[in-house]
């Protein structure tokens, strides 16, 4: 049974007055200006490149409302990622069921947590959405689905641990400096949307 938490710069070189040396100095000044401009242009793009790094599942304050503003996970959006692995951990904790080609339901197991949003994950997500009585039962993890799941988070506790209390089992994530981490082969990895493993 779920336990809901209530706590919720450039400089210009000087030119000389001597007309015999003015032209070489102008050429040198132009070369320096072009080089400086190129350096400034590269420096200006460096923060943008860093800002475009891996987008991660994140949060602040009490964990119970961390995920309602997250991105989308589906077979076509961030389908191979540690963010998908985080979501699959939720499915595992809740004992979600996926339907095979013959209509037989199977329990989502720990070995299904692979970071690949395939048909098993989509099917188990539909099951989870229906069980939580969500409006959208489409197999896509968007703001509504993430927002419903975060109601069952508690923490962060010591060392950044955040617990998810599922219907079947409790699982742990970490949240360090606002970034969520998920266990991958025994190691804590950022729950990034564009990185797997």
TrEMBL record:
Residues 1-23 are annotated as: Disordered. Residues 110-147 form the Peptidoglycan binding-like domain. It comes from the Bacteria. Transmembrane segments: none annotated. This is Peptidoglycan binding-like domain-containing protein. It comes from Streptomyces alboflavus.
